[in-house]
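Hi W.,

Here's what went into the run:
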Amino acid sequence: MSTNPNILAGRPSRTLSGDVAVPGDKSVSHRAVMLGAMAIGATRISGLLEAADVIRTVQAMAALGAHIERHADGTWVVEGVGVGGWKEPEEVIDFGNSGTGVRLAAGLVATTPVKVIFSGDESLSRRPMGRITQPLSLFGARIDTAPGGTLPMRVIGSDDPAPVEYTLPVPSAQVKSAVLLAGLNAPGETIVMEPEACRDHTERMLKAFGADISEEFTEKGRIIRLSGQKELTACAIEVPGDPSSAAFPLAAAILCPDSRVMVRNVLLNPTRTGLIETLHEMGAEIRILEPRQSGGEIIGHVQAETSSLRGITVPAARAPSMIDEYPILAVLAAFAHGTTRMEGLAELRVKESDRLKVTAEALAACGAEVKTGEDWMEVTGSGGRPLKGGAVIDAHHDHRIAMSFLVLGLAAQEPVTVRGAEMIATSFPGFVSLMQGLGADIAPAEVE
Ligand code: S3P
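Here's what came out:
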């Protein structure tokens, strides 16, 4: 018998306790590096998520001409090239597993006359790029993808960009951000119409960098207007803890007996707090403590303790504010009293894995009762009793699947083993030691 760090097991655990801080928010981290890379002056970023996805963005921005350094105290300093100042990279830019990285970067280069080729790993190479190539072509960019609209993708930025008016066909912050970032180097006003609100970190951060951006709320949704070809000014950014990472220790505390965990300094932007709202409705003991404003965002501590959950219907309208949290919500629902129905889940099919299918199959393998349709899932809970567990789950190149099922193992009768657990490093370095520090039994599994 030996152990393999890529195969982890989550074993039955109790009495999780402690105060922890999770790594920086992934969405904010990508954007801080990208806007810093375009701004004039030195942007200082503290709390940057130093995980594989964000490091790809750092490398990409360096390949496009930005000067980026990590100081000994953990601060990152980005000196930008100015709007329209990208240098043509010599090599293909490989974004690994990061959909946010590649889609936002394509927007950044679409209105500057450089040729950039983007590639990604097996999972990213299956994900749709048509959702960004379509609006970015309207700016005058010439874009080719592999058949089926996937990576590799070549973007030849326009040398005479036109501003664009675009209504988001899907509530995707990646698409919205790609369009706004392209608009930074288009003359005149780029307008994005957002029928359903999705995370707004790009808009908030653009304001912090001095961009000429405004918003208006109408009956049809939110209208964002951005005036292009104005320089951005470097600023200081503090990245708060990632609520999508905080979800795992908090969920573990809810499921394991006699537990109470606090996660400090979590980003609580209202476009990201759908899981907390849902858990309140399910009767979870979860509280926000000391909420405050910092750098244009709300942050606070979140505390959760062992709870008895009841099944509810999670409306489709809430999906954008908890889009990355459905795998862990489905795990929580599997221990609730009654059935939890989650609607409006079509976007889950195009994440790092087909999260609807993979979550449902893995739950069933652990003994849960699950039904799915094209864009919904229903999980009937065990009524607070431990699920059987005992399954071997493949992460399917998806960090959130890996972490969700390790948490399930903590509350099951038998350990749950996760293969492909190295994917956790894309968003949550230190996950295993943080969970162990709380008392969770997550460790490399013994394999033959
Ligand atoms: C992200 C947006 C979401 C989310 C992803 C991060 C972002 O994707 O799932 O993890 O930082 O803009 P979509 O925009 O495709 O919904």
